[in-house]
Amino acid sequence: MGIKTTYWTVSADQPEPEIIQRAAEIIINGGLVAFPTETVYGLGADGTNPQAVRRIFAAKGRPSDNPLILHVACKDEVLGLATEVNAQARQLMQLFWPGPLTLVLPKKPCVPEEVTAGLDTVAIRMPRHPVALALIAASGVPIAAPSANLSGYPSPTTGRHVYEDLAGRIEAVLDSGETGVGLESTVLDLSGPIPVILRPGGVTREELTAVLGTVIVDQGLSDPRQKPKAPGMKYVHYSPRAEVVLIHGPREQNALKIRELVTAYADKGKKIGLLLTRETWRHLPDLKGQVAYAQDLGSCARLEEIAHLLYRELRNCDEARADVVFTETYPEEGIGAALMNRLLKAAGYKVIDS
Q1: If I label 330, which of 84, 160, 200, 201 is the partner at 20 to 30 A Cα–Cα?
Q2: How many Å apart are CA 40 and CA 162, to the nearest integer?
């Protein structure tokens, strides 16, 4: 697209006011700015400007029926965007905002259809990152922002990831280092009688159930035969250029299956990436020097650390020009539900039992 992309490095703790103001002016004037949140980097535009919002879809190559999240700098801003903020929403905002929880609420007419893909609901979040909050406040508008990557690829967790994907397509990148959670926010639909998780993320179902009682999960998230309630979840997401294959079973059995698969794929001349738990690597120390890319993701007892590394390591496999990436499944409890959602989508639901 030939746009000059400015790259600013900013402090994550005390964002430089002059840089934030310059970035906010880009937003106000209809431009696109990538910025860090605690989950992943977002690609922001003025959420009240339909033309600016359309530019997000063009820059990412994102389908236009995939709604966007509006990011706000304070809880009171929700009242200007949603027709109803019920007791459940207020309670969740009090407990989890700022943070990785997006609430889907009935929308006011002022929210452009480009943001909601024509739906009568709007997704809203207050991020927990000083740079994001400073940018939204300085812009004076809700910022519409999906992840700042080319559509379908792993979401960016560093400014460098954003620049690799979107340089020449957007006006600016605000880089304040690696993001914390590493997976996108939880999306919770509160527009119906029962709260529904449309996308698992940084706030777990267990945490939400403890507050709300009954919380259900959209069955379309785990069953590719069912249509997901959130329009965007029907598309390919989180996938590197390499093929991703999940291995399911006990770690020791996984190691045996992975050794077998590495031999078979290597015999075909394929370059291999391995993203495995520490427990599995204990059975495969010799393989690290035999593949294009190998990474210890950490212990399966600490899934939040594995979630934090996932997108970065999928991108690293692409940089190593791996043809196929073998990784593992995890219990779908706590952050494991979000982790498995991303892995299954990245693998196109291809799972091999060990």
Answers
A1: 160
A2: 10
d(CA 144, CA 133): 13
pLDDT digits (tens, 9 = 90+) for 183-222: 999 999 999 999 999 999 999 999 999 999 999 999 877 6
Domain around 297: 243-353
Which pLDDT value is given to residue 178? 96
Comparing CA positions, the residue from 12, 148, 14, 17 lying closest to residue 71 is 148
Whether residue 131 sits in one domain with residue 49? yes
Cβ partners under 8 Å of residue 299, min gap 6 = 277, 278, 279, 305
CATH number, position 44: 3.90.870.10
Mark whether 77 and 181 lie in a shared domain: yes
Q: Does residue 155 share a domain with residue 64?
A: yes
Q: Return the structure tokens found at 109.
A: 């007419």
Question: pLDDT confidence of 239, banded at 50, 70, 90?
Answer: confident
Give the domain CATH number at 263.
Answer: 3.40.50.11030
Give the C-alpha separation, 317 to 325, whole Å.
7
Task: Please give the C-alpha separations between residue 349 and each of 222, 233, 311, in angstroms, as whole numbers.
Answer: 9, 13, 17
Residues 138 and 49 in one domain: yes
Cβ 67 vs Cβ 112: under 8 Å: no
Instruction: Give tens-digit pLDDT for 131-159.
Output: 999 999 999 999 999 999 999 899 999 99
pLDDT at 220: 78
| pLDDT score of 230 more than 80 | no
Secondary structure class of 342 (helix, strand, coil): helix
| Whole-number Å distance between alpha carbons of 170 and 3 | 6
- In degrees and rounded to multiples of 5, residue 231 shows phi and psi of -55, -40
> Beta strands of the chain (E only): which ranges?
6-9, 33-36, 41-46, 69-71, 101-106, 121-125, 143-144, 172-175, 186-189, 196-199, 216-217, 243-248, 272-276, 293-296, 324-328, 351-353
